[in-house]
Fold this sequence. Notes:
The structure holds two protein chains of two kinds. By secondary structure, chain A is of the alpha/beta class. Chain A has nine helices and ten strands. In chain A, strands 6-7-8-3-9-10 form a six-stranded mixed β-sheet, sandwiched between helices. Chain A has a four-stranded antiparallel β-sheet with strand order 2-1-4-5. In chain A, helix 3 packs across helix 4, helix 3 (about 100-110) runs parallel beside helix 5 and helix 8 packs across helix 9. In chain A, about 50% of the residues are buried. Mean pLDDT of chain A is about 85; it is low at about 1-5. By secondary structure, chain B is an all-alpha fold. Helices cover about 75% and strands about 0% of the residues of chain B. Chain B has helices at about 1-5, 10-25, 30-55, 60-95, 100-105, 110-140, 150-175, 180-200, 200-205, 210-220, 235-240, 245-280, 300-315, 315-340, 340-365, 370-375, 380-400, 405, 410-435, 455-475, 480-495, 500-505. The longest helix of chain B has about 35 residues, at about 60-95. Chain B is globular, with a radius of gyration of 26 Å. The model of chain B is unreliable at about 280-285 (pLDDT under 50). The interface of A and B includes residues 59, 110, 113 and 143 of A.
Amino acid sequence: xxxxxxxxxxxxxxxxxxxxxxxxxxxxxxxxxxxxxxxxxxxxxxxxxxxxxxxxxxxxxxxxxxxxxxxxxxxxxxxxxxxxxxxxxxxxxxxxxxxxxxxxxxxxxxxxxxxxxxxxxxxxxxxxxxxxxxxxxxxxxxxxxxxxxxxxxxxxxxxxxxxxxxxxxxxxxxxxxxxxxxxxxxxxxxxxxxxxxxxxxxxxxxxxxxxxxxxxxxxxxxxxxxxxxxxxxxxxxxxxxxxxxxxxxxxxxx
Amino acid sequence: xxxxxxxxxxxxxxxxxxxxxxxxxxxxxxxxxxxxxxxxxxxxxxxxxxxxxxxxxxxxxxxxxxxxxxxxxxxxxxxxxxxxxxxxxxxxxxxxxxxxxxxxxxxxxxxxxxxxxxxxxxxxxxxxxxxxxxxxxxxxxxxxxxxxxxxxxxxxxxxxxxxxxxxxxxxxxxxxxxxxxxxxxxxxxxxxxxxxxxxxxxxxxxxxxxxxxxxxxxxxxxxxxxxxxxxxxxxxxxxxxxxxxxxxxxxxxxxxxxxxxxxxxxxxxxxxxxxxxxxxxxxxxxxxxxxxxxxxxxxxxxxxxxxxxxxxxxxxxxxxxxxxxxxxxxxxxxxxxxxxxxxxxxxxxxxxxxxxxxxxxxxxxxxxxxxxxxxxxxxxxxxxxxxxxxxxxxxxxxxxxxxxxxxxxxxxxxxxxxxxxxxxxxxxxxxxxxxxxxxxxxxxxxxxxxxxxxxxxxxxxxxxxxxxxxxxxxxxxxxxxxxxxxxxxxxxxxxxxxxxxxxxxx
Lengths: 254, 506
């Protein structure tokens, strides 16, 4: 991917975010700024606070402290405007098992207030692109995990969001489906949209992301392009090789 | 205890202990303790009851009537057991997440199936054994030692009904496929259970003269030489319960052999059915994809209403429960036809519609399948709740709508009061789900009251109060403010009690 990032208004601006569960901080003074049109990867070990952070960004969890702005809209003060720009795909998206794919997409389009004349052809386009068109007559409870993941992705894209946040989007997908999704995400970034994803497959972050943030114990411990992270790891005495080396060095040092 | 711990891993008893432990822990510590306390108190009460009832055991010819009543009760119990066995077989086949682990382990599938079956037997027969065992214990001291046969007869009946329930469910899977069989079995089991309960109401529904006539005819049938003579096998389940040697032996044999045969012959079907339900994706019903261009209809209210109605219409458990609610109306309709009056019918319809509205609103509001999707949508949550409540109320109204064909012919006041109380009862039931929100899952519909405690009772009381209002407005107007006040107070209490929950979820 192109490593040069033009300066634009922030797609996501997180400032001093704190979330505690039972007194223990899951997210601790986390700040992050992601410009529009960037493919950003959020990495971290299990329990680092990635999902909690994303759920606060999506307005599903109220922060104890700090603020989140999506394209200039404060999630706490202007939740409707903020959510209109956003799509959030959880790691295990729950669909309605008794709905058919088009019925599901029609419902999602209704929630986001998309004109039926715009949503219907977009739904068809997405289902064809994701190889789900031949399954439009089936209810989704019989779908494999990969098919459900793809349908949820179609739901996330039906309103053409400016900011797409995906929590482990490639889990459960076969190689071909994973490739489809990756191509789709790259295409969106090329069109000027912003994509943020968490993944535990470091190779994906290495190949797709323009910038990477490493989150550990609820804080951002490192941020930058892959080269910048390598350099930082090397100055810390680490090997500075692959992203895996860098990741392990930065998370163990933090 | 040491012996239990030393059970050979992978054996039937070892796996059975695992099942029972899961069942016990599944209740939760608090509920298990509460249940244990309640069971102890109940057991003492039952022993006392048995102590006073058994001396009334009639001598000579009176025994015939008593035995006949016991036989009738035994058949109703059998139908309840069978209904329960079918519902539990569905759960064993479709709803248990640990089958992947068990079936991929070196434990024989035959053993897994048998233990699943024995788990159902324990669930199906446990309650009846608990209720009847005090008679066996007291019988020992009061000159009826034959009642110890209860300890053999109840498990044998549970074995037989479980075998039949498993066989029926597996046959449905074979004929209809896993998905449709699940729907059919759930509906069948629920309706059978409901029908058994309705049968208990028979003496209340038919007139005393008709009941006398029916009993006289039955007595003629059961006299020697009649089609239901005392030596008829139809009597065996009831006679086994009172310890008659031949019926007891026969019932025990039928239970053990029936269970053994079903387990032996059908465990391959069990495996196939389980795999079909687990790997549904591999055997999805081929459905024609969309033809022609896609057309959507917009609007938030429409989207939410249509989505909720689709999910309700495609939910077998809900359909079964709705059918059962309708079944409970049957005795009331018969009572009304016998002259109890349409006021009673209208009042019961208000109560049933309120109860159904409560269940459906719980499904649409509390048991939302995709809360993250709705939470991240650019719509205020309060705006989403109202179409969800309406989506739940409309089916409840539709169920009792046929009454409007009859009520206007009996007066405008009756019709208006019915509509007023129907609206009051259903809307109260709906908003109470919003005012005291409890997140749950669709499959927990039947257990939704668990964890609600006082609020669950207030919900029921409020439905009853609206039904009482409908009755009083027509039959005793001067008392009508009382139930109305109770209904409004119930709503107010739920609103007040749910303040902190609503704040948490906001």
